[in-house]
Amino acid sequence: MPNTDPRKTLRLLLDDALAAADPAVCMPPHLESLPPGAPLIVLGAGKAAAAMAAAVDAGWTGPLRGLVVTRYGHAIPNGRIEIVEAAHPVPDAAGQDAAARLLQIAREAGPDDTVLFLLSGGASALLALPADGLMLEDKQAVTRHLLDAGATIGELNAVRKHLSAIKGGRLAAAVQPARLITWAISDVVNDDPSVIGSGPTVADPTTLTDALAVLKKFAVEPPIRAAACLADPANETPKPDNPVFNGADYRIIARAQDSLTAAMDRARSKGLHPVLHSAAVEGEARAVAIHHAHQITTRLADDILPRPWVQFSGGEATVTVKGEGRGGPNTEFALALAIALDGAPRVWALAADTDGTDGAAEAAGAIVAPDTLARAAAAGLDPGGALADNDSYSFFESLGDLVMTGPTHTNVNDFRAILVTEPEAGR
To answer: Regarding the domain delimited by 6-17+257-425, which CATH topology (the fold level of the hierarchy) does it fall under?
Structure first.
């Protein structure tokens, strides 16, 4: 690819990854598994929920009604399923009201009804229905503290499930005696159904004791009402032997591996040699970046891969917020990677969140070029200072290297591609 722009190539790989997880692409084949023409109640939550609902609305010829909740700015209107927008990652009153309505619809379903629950990443915050005795501000406070402390999605959800009236299998209990089907787009490492969206329709293997251990690990002192909730055995979630899960059908219709496979196929078609590091990378974003940089420089030194080549990875990086800046796991990964590579020639990278929003910032991620540090120095930017202040967004914004996708209407978590070009293509 001597005449190909590395920036355009990386963006093309991201676009193919996103397309593979687009509900309009991955959902229609699954509609064929439903009883033709049967009445369908559609419920759902997550950043992809509106797009998933639109795919059902477009492909389902039978009677259809329902309600799904998605993040602000992620709505896609359709004819028969109501779309509600709410806040993410810290829940708000709109999410609480929508969750209460959704739970009521589930409780009204009868034995002859089929409930199709559409689940994707972000559902934990969007289905913000506190357990009895809790207030929304209690959940908001706990969520903020755990996010800032760098808790993983599994740790965060172990707590949220035990502070909820709808998550951790409780929605499945509400749907009884109707037939329950769940279709999920996975945004979690290893695609654990009990972690995706805090598992509203599956058994919860975590316990109240686990939730308390997470709070202790991150030195989070919960509000009084939350502490009382977590101390009450009555707030334990339904476990695998609970009969409410009998007959329930659960399938994952898109996952990180699918998107990485699509990007790798595109890489081959562009004459690139693809290398898959892992679809399940976890850890602090800057530590993940250092590890990736070491892999790249080692492979460059060994010089055994045919050039040009590109290394892919997915998963979920986290950030422990200690500074006052703006950014998320993917821009922080990109900044730490640029520092670790230290201007290595012919190495380019793109890191982005597949939902289009990296943390709380409006960018999906950022691009790293061989001259990133040189351009930063010319602009008077301090990469190390920006990293220490968790200000990766501002750093890449100043360089014009943010990746802006807008809402993608899907979510299979982080996407990373590190491209090593041929000598004549490096700039």
So the answer is: glycerate kinase, domain 1 (3.40.1480)
